Amino acid sequence: MGADIASYPNRNCGCPRKSNPPNISPSFKVRAGIKLLNAGLCAYSLVLIAGDVSRNPGPANISQDSQNFSDIGFPSNRGLKIAHLNVRSITNKIDSLRLLLLNNPFDVLTISETWLTKNISDPELNIQGYSFIRNDRKSKKGVTSTITSAVCKDHLESGVMFAFDVIDECFVKSKLNSLKTNKAIGLDKISARLLKDSADVITTSLTKLYNRSLATSVFPA
Question: What is one cellular component GO term in this UniProt entry (predicted)?
Answer without folding.
Answer: extracellular matrix
